[in-house]
Write a structure and sequence with these properties.
With 880 residues, this protein is mostly helical. The protein folds into four domains: 174 residues, Alpha Horseshoe (Serine Threonine Protein Phosphatase 5, Tetratricopeptide repeat), CATH 1.25.40; 84 residues, Alpha Horseshoe (Serine Threonine Protein Phosphatase 5, Tetratricopeptide repeat); 234 residues, Neutral Protease Domain 2 (Neutral Protease, domain 2, Orthogonal Bundle), CATH 1.10.390.10; 197 residues, Serine Threonine Protein Phosphatase 5, Tetratricopeptide repeat (Alpha Horseshoe), CATH 1.25.40. It is built from 43 helices and five strands.
């Protein structure tokens, strides 16, 4: 990435350098008078420009054409006339207007830059090259004439066309123009769009927000903000997109952005309708026809796709943007092979098209073609150090080059060396089991190995997955053959079951392969969550008090629109609910129509059949399905703890008299929960038992809510030193929860004290499924395996412990040495010496060393060390 301030390449007269020589005061005054003369284009021109900005293209054209017909001298009239013609798709007419303007304004940089865009849109590439040479000549010979903001922006645009360094264009032209005239809107548009083109969304947002303070009712500024937040805060993006279209209902780019969102959320009919509205404004928009080609592709209509692409290339046959946009959207639908083919088409038209190169690099990496993908990303970064995505990928490649690989015939797993040495084999074993079960279940044979990449840093996962480091909230993502996942190291604050995550993502591999990536988002996610529950009832998602309220309220999304629930959820809870509802639909389909009907649906989707048609063919029409599913979901919600009162009290229980509320609402879930929490805070442990037992009896599977009654009841028992009662409650909680680390650890402590080694092993394995990167569970597992005469497994546990910086390394080395000595392993001596190095007065270690030297067996009795302290048990976190 560019960091310095050095100048870039110069033209013959050196104009492309930032001026560094002071201009005499009188000459400066002359320039200011000159600029004022040229800038005063009159109220009529300002009115005409406003019509253009607000989308009144025909009125703008009429006004500008009239002025041009009257042979008015001002250049602005011809520029506005040409821009209005371009906005309405009349490219040849715009070309005619700009040709006349060029002959009239022989030294105008602005006319020539607009001409570049117009000639390019008409396919006249050679004319564009000659215009850029003219601009270069004029900039070198008439440097003094182009120092105002308008010309500086035009020259900055020219510098970008000439492929000069983008950061220096920003510093030497756009920023200078802004200082010269802070009220010139085009400088903000130029700077913001430059950052957008380089995927520098933070900078573009800052620029457009600065502009918004000056031009609050400018649709193009709002549109810039919509684009800046498109890949981040979708809600903010939609807000500014709506504002854009309020101010300019004919804003074609904004309409196409809506089309883009609609395609993402699989609202294809609405996308087509909006696309037709855009084409009424500009019937020959290349981008509009590119989106039409995408819709035809998704509709399995290759002839329509080819025709739409052909229309998009009508005036400029070598336009790389058409193929680039088609490919980018297809890749967004996980059709990376087809997307990559379109990027190659774009690069055939323009081998230097950096966006196509960057997208192709991403596609290749997601297809598993790492060598070509990384090489292309490096090439883009070398050509354009400002491209944020390429820079991030190159930096990530440096990190991943240090990863290590474990593999077999079915999987290639890449992990950090540290994590690979600790739980790499567990990952491979789990994936192997998933492949056997899920491929057999769905009748799918995978032809190539699945690639799995696990990242200790969330930012690296985000870059590999999304291209930028700031995207959070995802545990794993599947692209078809490739799975990327956050490791437990990145989820310390909010732990989750990594085994469930990998099972979920591998299920995507199976279903995406069956359908050739031609399945709706909701069905893909629904099957994966459903299969989590089939493998382990504590994985996946179940009905919760929050979900109950959403189902019985207004948050249940019609099945035909479920994919849209993933695109712009109102909150994180709404996104999780979309996963839950999708899984509930899959459960409904299998329960009422059988697994084979689901397999047939997947096969038909792979053949290109539409989702509603194939569902109707193998189950029931979508209208019937939606009606029956809604009843199914409502029944599931109403059957959640029916003996409890679920009505939320009007009075906040945290501030009201809870005893009075309990008297009037003795079965209310919310009041009982608040009563128990308050009693625990007051250390009234005995009193807290009653409401918690009532909650557990009425709702025995409540382990996913934030206020987990099992964890709260265990805290009460622990406060009263009722160890056995605490253990029983925690056993129930542990059997129901996929990620209650506090409960697992506490049960290992209790089991160790009581020498209940079966419980220790069970909860140790549960702990490792959430976080295998801490030493405590391995210590308990090693003790249990020693006690159960499993020396090899105990040795493995102690060895892993040593890689995790245990709190007592001397004890760990000593116990490992004892086991190795019994097996006559040469490593015994090294570990006993390391134990003594850590603790020179370790008596049992000295005895063992003497036994090793003397060739005797170690003494059987060894002092049992006290277990490490266990943190206070906390309620389980909400479901992820």
């Amino acid at each position: 990435m560019y960091t310095g301030g050095c100048d870039f390449a110069t033209s013959r007269k050196g104009f492309w350098r930032r001026p560094s020589v002071r201009v005499p005061v009188l000459l400066t005054a002359f320039f200011l008078l000159l600029l004022t003369s040229f800038g005063a284009v009159g109220a009529e021109v300002s009115e005409c420009r406003k019509l253009l900005i607000l989308g009144e293209y025909e009125k703008c054209l009429e006004m500008a054409s009239k002025a041009a017909g009257e042979n008015r001298y001002e250049e602005e009239w011809r520029l506005l006339q040409a821009q209005a013609l371009m906005a309405t798709g009349r490219y040849p007419e715009a070309k005619e207007v700009i040709v006349n303007a060029l002959s009239r304004y022989t030294t105008s940089i602005r006319s020539r830059m607009l001409a570049c865009s117009i000639f390019r849109a008409n396919g006249s590439s050679k004319r564009v090259e000659s215009l850029l040479k003219e601009i270069d000549y004029l900039a070198g010979t008439r440097r003094w004439a182009y120092t105002d903001a308008k010309n500086l922006v035009a020259l900055g645009d020219a510098a970008l066309w000439l492929k000069l360094d983008a950061r220096q264009v920003l510093d030497n032209f756009y920023n200078v123009a802004k200082k010269s005239d802070p009220e010139y809107r085009e400088v903000y548009l130029a700077s913001g769009n430059l950052a957008l083109g380089k995927n520098d969304f933070e900078t573009s947002a800052n620029v457009f927000f600065e502009a918004l303070r000056k031009f609050s009712e400018d649709p193009d500024i709002h549109f810039g903000l919509a684009q800046s937040f498109a890949s981040g805060d979708r809600e903010v993006a939609i807000e500014h997109l709506k504002k854009t279209l309020e101010l300019n209902p004919n804003h074609v780019a904004a309409m196409l952005m809506r089309v883009d969102y609609m395609i993402d959320s699989e609202r294809y009919a609405a996308a087509n309708e909006t696309l037709q509205q855009a084409m009424k404004v500009n019937p020959w928009s290349p981008e509009a026809w590119a989106y039409q080609a995408v819709l035809e592709h998704l509709d399995n209509n290759p002839k329509g796709e080819a025709l739409a692409r052909e229309k998009g290339l009508r005036y400029w046959a070598a336009n790389p943007e058409v193929d680039h946009l088609i490919g980018k959207k297809l890749s967004g639908k996980y059709r990376f092979k087809e997307g990559a083919a379109y990027q190659r088409r774009a690069l055939k038209s323009d081998p230097d098209h950096l966006q196509a190169k960057s997208q192709l690099a991403t596609d290749l990496l997601r297809l598993g073609d790492d060598a070509a993908g990384w090489a292309l990303a490096k090439e883009v970064n070398e050509e354009d150090g400002y491209d944020v995505n390429a820079f991030n990928l190159v930096a990530l490649n440096d990190t991943m080059s240090k990863f290590e690989t474990i593999s077999n015939d079915d999987f290639i797993v890449r992990m950090s060396p540290h994590e690979k040495s600790i739980y790499g084999d567990r990952v491979l074993d789990l994936l192997g089991r998933a492949k056997k079960i899920l491929c057999d279940k769905y009748g799918m044979e995978l032809e190539t190995p699945t690639i799995v990449e696990i990242f200790p840093k969330q930012s690296d996962f985000a870059v590999r997955t999304f291209g930028v480091p700031g995207v959070d909230g995802f545990l794993g993502v599947c692209f078809g053959r490739l799975i990327t996942a956050n490791s437990p190291a990145s989820r310390v604050a909010t732990p989750s079951n990594w085994e469930a995550v990998l099972w979920h993502e591998f299920c995507h591999v199976v279903t995406l392969s069956m359908t050739r990536n031609k399945m709706p988002r909701w069905l893909s996610e629904g099957i994966s969550v459903y299969e989590e529950l089939q493998e382990n009832p504590v994985w996946g998602q179940s009905m919760t008090p929050e979900y109950r309220e959403m189902v019985l309220g207004e948050d249940l999304t019609p099945v035909g629109e479920l994919s849209s629930a993933f695109m712009a959820p109102k909150s994180g809870m709404h996104l999780q609910f979309a996963y839950y509802e999708s899984a509930l639909v899959v459960e409904y389909l299998i329960k009422n129509h059988g697994l084979e009907s689901l397999r047939k649906i997947l096969r038909d989707l792979g053949r290109g059949r539409k989702i509603n048609e194939t569902i109707a063919a193998h189950t029931e029409p979508m209208s019937e399905l939606e009606k029956k599913f809604k009843a199914f979901a409502i029944a599931r919600a109403e059957n959640l703890a029916p003996d409890l009162d679920w009505e939320k009290p009007d009075i906040d229980p945290r501030r009201a008299n809870v005893d009075e509320l309990i008297a009037s609402h003795p079965k209310n879930y919310w009041i009982l929960t608040q009563q128990a929490k308050r009693l625990l805070q007051q250390k009234q442990y005995e009193a807290a038992k009653a409401p918690l037992r009532k909650l557990i009896k009425a709702y025995p599977k409540n382990v996913e809510s934030a206020d987990n009654p099992y964890a709260l009841l265990a805290m009460a028992h622990r406060g009263l030193e009722e160890g056995e009662e605490e253990r029983k409650v925690l056993e129930t909680l542990s059997a129901l929860s996929p990620d209650s680390l506090g409960a697992y650890l506490r049960l290992m402590e209790i089991g160790s004290e009581k020498e209940d080694w079966k419980s220790v092993e069970t909860n140790g394995e549960r702990y490792l499924a959430v976080n295998p990167l801490l030493p405590q569970p391995y210590r308990y597992l090693a003790l249990a395996r020693e006690a159960n005469a499993k020396p090899d497994e105990a040795i493995d546990a102690y060895r892993v412990m040593l890689r995790l910086d245990p709190p007592d390394p001397a004890e760990t080395h000593f116990r490992l040495a004892r086991l190795l000595h019994e097996k006559k392993d040469p490593a015994t001596r090294r570990h006993i010496l390391q134990a003594l190095e850590e603790a020179p007065r370790y008596r049992d270690a000295h005895k063992l060393l003497l036994a090793i030297v003397g060739g005797d067996k170690p003494e059987a009795a060894v002092d049992k060390p006290a277990p490490p302290p266990v943190p206070a048990l906390k309620p389980a976190s909400p479901a992820k």
